[in-house]
Write a sequence for this structure.
């Protein structure tokens, strides 16, 4: 499976060894607020997501990656592509531990994933969404060059949806 690296980050597909770290990460109040609509994620749910991610990698060559500092062992986040909605649509998803916010790591991580699917997998478009009150995520998606593509109801009122085409990504000089 694909390992992705940046100047500051190392991203590897999540596996069973990440279970306790992912549970802890996704239970952080700031992380779960929008990612889990404030709910406390159950360990069994995370175990199932790890298994589902492996299946997604087998079928689509994408799933969830653990995010660590490049030379550190500690999980500081999770990012990748996940099926949402009915019927399922694959969307960019990311989360960083609160201690790592406001350092540009979200852009570095998400930008690396976008570059990966456009360059290595030749995707035509990337989709993402976030709750309208999540101003940091809205700003990140815009900074990545993603364009508003619609709205739908969500736990905090409105969920804003975004897209970025491969052509638009190429025309803006990539990320």
């Amino acid at each position: 499976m694909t390992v992705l690296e940046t100047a500051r980050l190392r991203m590897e597909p999540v596996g069973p060894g990440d279970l306790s770290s992912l549970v802890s990460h996704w239970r952080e109040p700031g992380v779960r607020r929008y990612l889990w609509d404030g709910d406390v994620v159950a360990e069994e749910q995370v175990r199932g997501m790890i298994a589902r991610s492996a299946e997604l990698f087998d079928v689509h060559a994408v799933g969830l990656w653990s995010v660590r500092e490049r030379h550190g062992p500690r999980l500081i986040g999770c990012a990748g592509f996940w099926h949402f909605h009915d019927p399922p649509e694959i969307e960019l998803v990311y989360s960083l531990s609160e201690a790592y916010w406001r350092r540009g790591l979200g852009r570095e991580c998400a930008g690396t994933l976008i570059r990966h699917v456009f360059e290595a997998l030749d995707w035509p478009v990337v989709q993402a969404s976030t709750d309208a009150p999540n101003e940091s995520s809205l700003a990140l998606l815009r900074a990545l060059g993603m364009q508003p593509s619609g709205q739908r109801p969500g736990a905090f009122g409105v969920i804003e949806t975004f897209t970025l085409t491969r052509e638009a990504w190429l025309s803006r000089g990539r990320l």
About this structure: Residues 62 and 127 are 14 Å apart (CA to CA). Helices lie at 19-27, 29-35, 43-60, 105-119, 135-143, 166-171. The mean pLDDT is 94. The chain has one domain: 4-171.
